[in-house]
Design goal:
Two copies of one chain form a homodimer. By secondary structure, chain A is α+β, with helices and mostly antiparallel strands. Chain A folds into two domains: 9-209 and 330-416, Aminopeptidase (3-Layer(aba) Sandwich); 211-328, 2-Layer Sandwich (Alpha-Beta Plaits). Helices cover 35% and strands 23% of the residues of chain A. Chain A has helices spanning 9-21, 36-51, 96-111, 138-143, 161-167, 195-199, 237-256, 294-315, 335-348, 362-366, 393-416; strands spanning 55-58, 64-68, 77-83, 119-125, 155-156, 159-160, 182-190, 203-209, 211-220, 262-272, 282-291, 318-319, 323-328, 331-332, 352-357, 371-377. In chain A, the strands form three sheets. In chain A, strands 1, 2, 3, 4, 7, 8, 14, 15 and 16 form a nine-stranded mixed β-sheet that branches. In chain A, strands 9, 10, 11, 12 and 13 form a five-stranded antiparallel β-sheet that branches. In chain A, a hairpin with a 5-residue loop joins strand 1 (55-58) and strand 2. In chain A, helix 1 (9-21) packs antiparallel against helix 3, helix 3 packs across helix 11 (393-416) and helix 9 (335-348) crosses helix 11 (393-416). Chain A is elongated and about 80 Å long. The two termini of chain A are 37 Å apart. The relative contact order of chain A is 0.18. The model of chain A has no long low-confidence stretch (mean pLDDT 96). The interface between A and B is large, with 60 and 60 residues.
Amino acid sequence: MSRNLAVSPARIAADIDALAAITDPNRPWTRRAFSPLFLEGRAYLENAFRAAGLETRIDAAGNLVGARKGRTPGIGTIMLGSHSDTVPDGGRFDGVAGVVVALEVARGLEEAGIELEHDLEVTDFLAEEVSIFGVSCIGSRGMAGVRPDEWLGRKADSMTLAEGIRDVGGDPDAEQKARDDIRAFLELHIEQGPVLEGETLDIGVVTAIAGITRVEIIVEGRADHAGTTPMNRRADALAAAAHAVLAVETLSSALAATPGHFAATTGEFEMWPNAANVVPSRVRMLLDIRSEHRDDLGDFLTSLEAVLEGIARDNGVSIAPPRLVSDNPAMPMDDLVMDALDAACQTTGAGHRRMASGAGHDAAFMARIARAGMVFIPCRDGRSHAPEEFAENADIALGAEVLLQAVKRLDTQLMEQ
Amino acid sequence: MSRNLAVSPARIAADIDALAAITDPNRPWTRRAFSPLFLEGRAYLENAFRAAGLETRIDAAGNLVGARKGRTPGIGTIMLGSHSDTVPDGGRFDGVAGVVVALEVARGLEEAGIELEHDLEVTDFLAEEVSIFGVSCIGSRGMAGVRPDEWLGRKADSMTLAEGIRDVGGDPDAEQKARDDIRAFLELHIEQGPVLEGETLDIGVVTAIAGITRVEIIVEGRADHAGTTPMNRRADALAAAAHAVLAVETLSSALAATPGHFAATTGEFEMWPNAANVVPSRVRMLLDIRSEHRDDLGDFLTSLEAVLEGIARDNGVSIAPPRLVSDNPAMPMDDLVMDALDAACQTTGAGHRRMASGAGHDAAFMARIARAGMVFIPCRDGRSHAPEEFAENADIALGAEVLLQAVKRLDTQLMEQ
């Protein structure tokens, strides 16, 4: 399928390949935030931003921003962006595709001689992935004014986060202020799931970034000699935990079959004493629960607690009520932006659907201070955070074209708001 | 209940208390084989053996042996014994009760002026528990001539097992020879299970030491993003493994309800990548299977393999056939010895039953070279290998009396064989 695009697939491919080459050679593709390789990637991007006619700066939060003035001063900014840092042994597209596409939209507009009413900014957010400091979305939290102050004292590799932000060119000492001039924010990202590929669609217009809730379950049984304790005299914490794992799966699958994204995973599972000849005495489970609708989360936790009581009773173990470790509610995307993205898909002929994002993104923080929206593009087998992560360049380019068309539409619509 | 015993409960209590005092004070009760504390315990026992009129020696395998000549030279030995080493944070009775009781039988015979036809030997076997060298029953294996030669090169705490055996007074360089003069071997041990206590019985006459089979199961699923991968598109290794854990429990419980000891435990369980936001990709389970009857083991493994095939199919994961890691078949005890022990229980008025041992013991190796038997005495809540391990002194003393009576009976019966 050949389309008449305002963006250049070849330039997108060249940028993605150039950034892929900036990696720890022994662990492709690794370019973690705050590392020398990260700064090398940033230098590449800064040059590319400038070559596209953008005026570059590092903001106080450590984000690389490239700006293009609009025709009407003072009416605010339309921002596009994502992140260029990777997880260890990560992929070439997670984050990078969104930054390169944002840049390509600016180049495409410039080449087509299109002046926007609004200022346009292209942003590479600092440290979207969980960084060496153990926290994520450092740059977008900072831009939204919600980066916890105590994070600045966090230490890793014998430096503090404050020093890390200073090293990339930010100003950790500046008073943190939420940007209030951003009228719309758009981010392209690989789906990191199998839905678009499975349905042979080009674009997912994101409806919300699902909430992430972490819940801990502790099962306490009794350590007994595995050889001498009769089967019917045991309080086996592992057997009880196995019932709990299956209950999590069953309850979650039922909610996943109703409208709105829902998924629950027992991602961490540890057992004690973990010795061949001892009946397991204790299990710790950590659940990762993603919910688009808050009611689903409530239903899940209520049902789970009741089921766990029955499991404890039936297995002669004790299970405390699930303990909430962290809870970040879902962040809905903006209706005007979603409509603009749908319309852009129509214009470009992209097969599209609406869908929630199960993963967290910088857009979740930008949604606190701006009308925000995201588009997903397909990725192979839904794989990400792994070297085999892959997205077709044609799919990325089509996503860029959708963003460009959406930006043009929003530039007009926001004038009327 | 006061009984007219040939043995002295007070002497037994004094010996057990004296050995309990020889412990790492910060981790009662810890007296691991090859440690200075172990040698201190051995010194106590050697003195006590001598005070009882026994001639002491350390054999080539590192066992402490106290001997009393019988009336008829050359007809062989009746041996009693167990072990004085403990696990870390172990108890005061596991092994120790058997050594002290063996000594007390010798003292009781001496005091009563009873001369046996056979030589009598009292043995403290070296390192019955899993030692710093990672292996167990080192002394009884050596006496039975089945201690693998390559074990001598095993290293721990910067010494080899050969050096460890030399340090306790053994001779690792001597050619290993199975003793061929032992006509009967008897061992008293705490049950390490809840059966006798539950049935308010004094003595368990052991029918067999259950086989110990270790089987590894590997479940291979697929690591996926926990937020973005729909519930129905996962190959969750943990969910599949949970089904496997429950299948092990169900199959094992069914076999436990049939005649003959059977128990299977998922004692080790590890999961990868064990990260909150990643669908589990791999689980390793290690099963500990104890079986008195070989057929039960076969039935279990056959049924398990079929069930695992179904689990793999239903959950979209792969599960290789269970891999046999180690397999030590059950060791039956000797009929003549069991009958003598039953009769001794009758004589002393001890409430008794026959039962298999789910745990391994030195008697399993002695059974290779002699008619062997064991008696169990009750222990509180079935607990062992823990500081709270406890046995009533009256129960230990009654066990000693049963052994003494059985020795007298066997001394006569073996002359007629």
